[in-house]
Amino acid sequence: MAESRLWAGWASLLAQVERLTRRSDSEDLLHDAYVRMAARSAKPDNEEAFLVRAAVNRGRDAYRREKVRGGPDGDDALERLWDNAPMQDEAIIARARLKRVSEGIERLPPRTREVFMLQRIDNLKYREIAERLNISQSAVEKHMAKAMTFLGDWTKDW
Q1: What is the Cα–Cα distance from 49 to 57, expressed in whole angstroms?
Q2: Which tens digit of pLDDT belongs to each residue from 69-115?
Q3: Kindly report the CA angle at 74 between 71 and 79, in degrees rounded to 5?
Q4: How much of the chain, in percent, has pLDDT values that exceed 70?
Q5: Buried/exposed 5-23: b ≥16 CB within 10 Å, e otherwise
Q6: Could you tell me if 119 and 144 are in contact, meaning their C-beta atoms sit under 8 angstroms apart?
Q7: Mind listing the pLDDT tens digit for each residue in 32-72?
Q8: Domain layout of the chain by residue ranges
Q9: Could you tell me the pTM of the whole model?
Q10: What letter does residue 155 receive in the DSSP assignment?
Q11: CA-CA distance, 155 to 73, in Å (whole number)?
Q12: Cα–Cα distances in angstroms (integers) from residue 82 to residues 5, 13, 64, 77, in the given order
């Protein structure tokens, strides 16, 4: 008897849960509450109130869980766990390569090294380097080509 009364008033219960939770999954919440109530050995005094309260509580729990995990499906949770830092062996290899490049830069002729550093570290344009060092833009291009060729050969197979 009570079950037929619940099913007859299901739309009313659902409307209450939707109003109280403002969630799109209100029907799922209400259904879960019904399954939970049906599994109990002792029936509550007021089944409708129990269902609405249980569904609202499940909605609050879901809201809190989503707030921590980042969304209803938890997509952001995995992204937040992702560590973008390189693996230790990658960091060691990168440090070794950087040391090799630094050694190569130190082996460049002084003027070529200066042109290279002004372009790569200070981000100056060839024209600006030429003006600063009082040399032609063509000379800057030749120094850069020389530096890049040497460093390419120096770091080959590294």
Answers
A1: 12
A2: 765 555 555 566 667 787 888 889 889 999 999 999 999 999 999 99
A3: 105
A4: 87
A5: eeeeeeeebbebbbebbeb
A6: yes
A7: 888 888 888 888 888 888 888 888 888 888 888 888 876 55
A8: 2-81, 88-154
A9: 0.47
A10: T
A11: 47
A12: 50, 41, 22, 9
Q: Report the distance separating Cα 65 and Cα 42, nearest Å.
A: 29
Q: Could you tell me if 55 and 32 are in contact, meaning their C-beta atoms sit under 8 angstroms apart?
A: yes
> Six-digit token pair at 146?
């020389």
Of the candidates 39, 55, 52, which has an alpha carbon nearest to the alpha carbon of residue 9? 52
Tokens of 48: 């409708």
| Tokens, residue 73 | 């499906």
The CATH number of domain 88-154 is 1.20.140.10: no
Cα gap 11→82, rounded to integer Å: 43
Quote the Cα angle for 71-73-79, to 5°.
Answer: 70
DSSP string, 62-129: HHHHHHHHTSTT-HHHHHHH---SPPHHHHHHHHHHHHHHHHHHHHS-HHHHHHHHHHHTS---HHHH
Q: Give every CB contact of residue 54 below 8 A, 6+ residues apart in sequence.
A: 32, 33, 36, 37
Instruction: Tell me which amino acid residue 84 is.
Output: N
